[in-house]
Amino acid sequence: VENTYPTRTFSVDGTGDVDTTPDLATFSATVTTDGGKDVAEVQGANSEKMNRINTYLKDQGIDKGDMKTTGYNLSPRYSYNPCTAGSCPAPTITGYNLTQTLEVKVRDNGKLGSLLSGVVENGANSVSEVRFTVDDDSSARDEARAEAIAEAKKKAKTLAKTLAQTLAQTLAP
After folding, report:
1. 11-34, pLDDT tens digit by residue?
2. Is residue 48 within 8 Å of residue 54, measured between CB atoms?
3. CB count, 10 Å around CB of 4?
4. Rounded mean pLDDT of 116-143?
């Protein structure tokens, strides 16, 4: 039986780098409310602030689909009474803390600074996780891939010439 595949092979690699400008920013705005034992009251106070932030962002042109709640944590605060005569009383709940986090996508990076200030002015206790990304990086990936393939082809041609070999038809330009 005669072999129809090449008996000599070698491998090459290539890299491609493409610089892109971020066109999307995301950040998290967090509202924390410390309250008493009435959970509904704590939730109401927290919701009021979060609603102000949502309204502000919508008024600034942020689409409802670009805002989502990513965290909601209601936790008790305890008071620990001192132990006396070898007896330690159980801790008692003195109130509740509610923390709610909203993730926001900003499609106009020029507005980012004013939005960060605005959410704080409207009730956010903290702003964090500011990230810059490219919304659709598929064309940049395609360009980098093409650059990597061209580099690999160039390496393959040079190596084949050095080894006095020919390249397979699929690699020839």
Report:
1. 778 887 877 776 799 999 999 999
2. no
3. 5
4. 85
**CA 42 to each of CA 48, 72, 119: distance values in angstroms, whole numbers, following the listed order:** 10, 13, 20
Structure tokens at 123: 């009730």
Q: Which amino acid is at 39?
A: V
Locate 65 and state its tokens: 């689909």
Residue 62: CB atoms within 10 A of its CB come to 19
Place of tokens 């040079």: 158
Backbone angles phi, psi at 164, to 5 degrees: 55, 45
The type of residue at 37 is: K
**Distance (Å, rounded) from C-alpha 171 to C-alpha 7?**
17
Residue 74: closest CA among 38, 102, 48:
38
User: Phi and psi for 97 in degrees, rounded to 5?
Assistant: -115, 135
Q: What are the tokens at 84?
A: 């006396």
27 near 130, Cβ under 8 Å?
yes
